[in-house]
Amino acid sequence: MKRTLALGGVAAGLLASALVTQPASAAGDVASTPLAATGIQAKNIAAFWLTENAANLVNATPYDVETQVASKHVSTGGPTADTKPGVVPAIGDEKKTTSTSKNVNLPKTTGKVFFADGFEIQGTMDDFKVVAKNPHWCSATSVQSNYRNLVATAGSCVYDTESNKATMNHWVFVPGYYQGKTPWGVYVGKQAFTHYDYDVYEDGDRNYAFVTVYNGLTLNGPEQSADVSKTEVTQAEYKAYWAGSRRLLLAGTEWKDGKKHYYVWKFKDAGRLGDNVGGQGIAYNQKVGQSVYVFGYPSGKHLDGNQAYTGKTLKWSYGKTFAAGASAIKAEELIGVKSSFTGEGSLGSAWISQYKSARRLGYLNGVTIGVSDTDKNKRFDTSVSPYFDGETYGVYKAAANLWTGSIA
Description:
Blueprint lengths: L9 E3 L12 E3 L2 E5 L4 H21 L1 E2 L4 E3 L2 E3 L11 E3 L21 E7 L1 E6 L4 E6 L2 E8 L6 E4 L15 E7 L11 E9 H6 L7 E5 L2 E4 L10 E4 L1 H9 L6 E7 L2 E7 L1 E5 L1 H5 L3 E4 L6 E6 L18 E6 L1 E5 L4 E8 L11 E7 L4 E7 L2 E3 L9 E5 L3 H11 L8
Parallel strand pairs: 4-11, 21-27
Antiparallel strand pairs: 1-5, 1-28, 2-3, 3-14, 6-24, 7-21, 8-11, 8-13, 9-10, 11-12, 12-15, 13-14, 14-15, 16-20, 17-19, 18-19, 22-23, 22-26, 24-25, 25-29, 26-27, 28-29
């Protein structure tokens, strides 16, 4: 569903809702909600996306819930730092390093988050497939954390502001995703953290989220063929999977040697997210006017109908931040950057300051929550993000020290 307010300007990944929901838990400014609380739930979610040759990943479309709102761009002043400026170093940069590069090497940390409204099982117990209902994706990035298990994206790519459910369903992060390929595995979300004001009031100035993820999963074996990705079980075990909460783990049946054989999917632990792809640092209370790279997967069309991006490959843009606001989405302290990214797919794109191209690392200092056509030529020319301040750091800190572990 695409809801539009005829006010022009920013196409933002936000919806103004008349309903208010209470968070699952809140401590001060931090709200948190579970995504997959148990290992069985997490493995079911991984199977949902990985099996059937990753058909549900391939069929996902960019998240296109957009709101057209009037925006204002301010040349002086801007967001106010609430505490002293601070940074958290990227994974690998805990000790000061220096490097230079003339090329823009794309970060390994960036990927897509996928979620869906649910699923439908088509067929019988012996021959079935699992079909996702409305599978979508946003952009996201891995960030530094104590257990190297944290993802940052837009709050609207985690919290379901359209239906006012607590969170999106079947939420996973896939770094380096490309046309069904999951080079470093699928990382199932365990716990989502955002600011209380976004979770309850949908405050656009707090539209960011940090999600802890379990160790990555792949189907067993580097080639991910069916022969090495499933293990045989008894008929009774197979029927118990079907009747219980683990039916998504079923790999099917086959006749062999005059006998019927029963199989379930076999997963391999891909390790911790940060160990595999690294993690960007965090910067907060920074001066407006700094240069940032924006990394994401833009898709969709410009307002004139031009399809500038496919959403299939990681793209980047570069510019200096400036103060912005969009009162219609309750956002008065945004920052903007000149960018031709379209709104679909780019929601959650990582804004990286002091990016070291040789090491592919820097400091996350924003996430895209919307795009704008500021010169009214029917082409998007600006991306906007919440300003990262001390309260952003507080939400990050609450998520950054939580262990998740392996579910394989």
